[in-house]
Amino acid sequence: MSPKLRLRDGTAQLGRRLPPAAAEQGAADQVPAAAEGVRGVQSSTTTSNLQNLVDQARNLILSNTDDLRPCGAPALALLPHRPLPVLKLAHTKLHAYPWTAVPYHWRCLYTDAAILHALSLIGEGDTLPEAIKHLDHAIIIAGAPRRLSLIHRLLSSLPSPPLPDSLSALTTWPPQPHKPGTPGEPTLRFPIPRLQLPPTSITPSHLTRPVILTNLLASWPALTNWSNPSYILRHTHSGLRHVPIELGRAYTDAGWGQRILPLREFLELYILSSHSGREIAYLAQHDLLLQLPELSEDIALPGFITDAGRPVAVNVWFGPEGTVSPLHTDPRDNVFAQVVGRKYVRLYPPGADVLPRGVEAGGVDMGNTSRVEVEAVDGGEELGEEERRRWAEGAGREGWVEAVVEAGECLVIPKGWWHYVRSLETSWSVSFWWG
Q1: Among 56, 90, 175, 342, which is disulfide-ready with 110 (CB 3.0 to 4.6 Å)?
Q2: Mean pLDDT, rounded, of the chain
Q3: Per-residue DSSP letters for 83-147?
Q4: Higher pLDDT, 376 or 116
Q5: Boundary-marking domain end, from 107, 140, 157
Q6: Among 286-290, 357-361, 381-385, which stretch is predicted with the lowest mean pLDDT?
Q7: d(C-alpha 149, C-alpha 247), whole Å
């Protein structure tokens, strides 16, 4: 939901490093660096620095409310003294529009009210988790216009509570029991070719059809760091940071929903649980590196990607075994980097007759998503009898290819290719939409 991170040129040999997200914010939310505290157990000096930062942040927000004037005088009058009711008002307004049509001033009001409410909680007993929640929600729900680097500075100044022994001792993602009634290990019939080329030798001619690049990620620290649960927890205030989660196997399923919850809760309920009947949950297509810029140090933008005047969209995917992205197509070229774990991917060429959906209830255009259940022989229950017969016979799906993408590999998905993705174990992935 939040704005996409624009990537800038860098100097890494095997790719371009992702820049700090604060560079995108300009001067609108800059607070002197001297006010920044130190993460960890607070000393009296750190407490003083944090209070200075809180005071400066509050003054910054209230010193110029021009962007908020369309929200009305009553909201502006209430904002300095009672930001929580203003936050609730802004939340209602955000949900009164399609996301792309939300007026800018309501996004600004939500962000400023969330920060002011969080500032009122900092230093007040056991309210640290609640303060972190509101700062994260400003990014996830409103996109934090004008305030992203301010939020990053506030969060980096807050202490991290100690991890429970059960979590601090984790060094790998534990294996999960296979969920009954779901597909198992796939048998490949038409494997996607693999190329082992030096990154500097990759040219546009290599990217016109699906291909797996096997050594593009060799320099990524994420291959090691993101395999370690305690590393992720240390970089998320011991898992107190909030993330958006999709609940359900796939977004086309009945009962599918979304929640924003602390990362630690997501891990304990859906990733670390050994219960085979657990509900599937997925951190899917989220610009996590915008929200947690310290993790951007662990990856690099592949050197052959160019933005062509349009920002490269970088999204992170994290979930347990059994998550599914239904057969769909993207509007841009996609380099899909598998960081941890393995995923099964099947692709159909742009001209394949994969029975796309149309405009569904509520006016949502689902034309980029197929009605086909890819791993069902007859295409699944959403197809009519004749459609199932034709699908089972192979009509309309000539030219499909597939692969199990291993950790450390990249799959090139050219624009217009339909693709279906299923995780075979706990996995982290990063997608780069470009061109």
Answers
A1: 90
A2: 87
A3: HHHHHHHHHHHHTTS-GGG--HHHHHHHHHHHHHHHHHHTTSTT-HHHHHHHHHHHHHHH--TTT
A4: 116
A5: 157
A6: 357-361
A7: 30
Looking at the fold, whether 143 and 271 belong to one and the same domain comes out as no
What percent of the chain clears pLDDT 90, i.e. is strictly above it? 65
Task: Decide if pLDDT at 19 tops 80.
Answer: no
Which residues, other chains included, contact 241 with Cβ-Cβ below 8 Å and sequence gap of 6+?
132, 136, 155, 262, 263, 291, 292
The pTM score is 0.88
Residues 285-313: what's their mean pLDDT? 91
User: Rounded CA gap, 403 and 385, in Å?
Assistant: 29
> Under 8 Å CB-to-CB from 222, ≥6 apart: which residues?
295, 298, 299, 339, 340, 428, 430
290-295 contacts at long range (C-beta below 8 A, 24 or more positions apart)? 290/2, 290/3, 290/4, 290/5, 290/21, 290/139, 290/148, 291/2, 291/136, 291/139, 291/140, 291/241, 291/243, 292/235, 292/236, 292/241, 293/18, 293/20, 293/21, 293/22, 293/152, 294/235, 295/222, 295/235
Neighbours of 61 (CB within 10 A): 23
139 and 278 inside one domain: no
pLDDT tens, position by position, 6-15: 222 222 223 4
Judge if 153 and 211 occupy the same domain: no
Q: Are residues 316 and 226 in the same domain?
A: yes
Residues 6+ apart with CB under 8 A from 373: 326, 379, 380, 381, 382
**Choice between 164 and 285, residue whose per-residue pLDDT is larger:** 285
Residue 304 structural domain: 194-352+398-434
In a domain, 269, yes or no: yes
Say what angle helices 44-63 and 104-121 make with each other, to 10 degrees: 150
Residue 83 falls within a domain, yes or no?
A: yes
In the chain, the number of structural domains is 2
Residues 41 and 105 both lie in one domain: yes
33 token code pair: 């660096």
Asked whether residue 229 is assigned to any structural domain, the reply reads yes
Residues 153 and 60 reside in one and the same domain: yes
The number of residues making up the chain comes to: 435
CB atoms under 10 Å from CB of 199, counted, come to 19
CB 111 within 8 A of CB 146: yes
Q: Does one domain contain both 205 and 306?
A: yes
| Residue at 76 is within a domain | yes
Do residues 234 and 348 share a domain?
A: yes
